[in-house]
Write a structure and sequence with these properties.
- The chain is 96% helix and 0% strand.
- It has 71 residues and is mainly α.
- The chain is rod-shaped.
- The model has no long low-confidence stretch (mean pLDDT 90).
Length: 71
């Protein structure tokens, strides 16, 4: 290959990178950032729900014990 061939290949790759790959990467980034924020919020909600469930389990067990005493 000549240096002209290599230059032509390089220019083609530059055009492909700028016109095809970079816009796709921007689209991926635009979707990723909001999704990441939603996941962060969801983790907090999950932690809160797990704590609520633990409390409910405890209350249900105590109520179950009380009901068994009446039976």
């Amino acid at each position: 290959m000549t240096s002209e061939d290599l230059l032509a290949i390089s220019q083609l790759l530059d055009v492909k990178l700028e016109t095809h790959i970079l816009p796709r990467l921007r689209n991926i980034e635009d979707g990723y950032v909001p999704a990441c924020e939603r996941h962060k919020k969801g983790i907090g909600q999950l932690d809160s729900m797990q704590a609520d469930i633990a409390v409910m389990k405890n209350v249900l067990m105590k109520h179950g014990d009380k009901l068994r005493r009446f039976a």
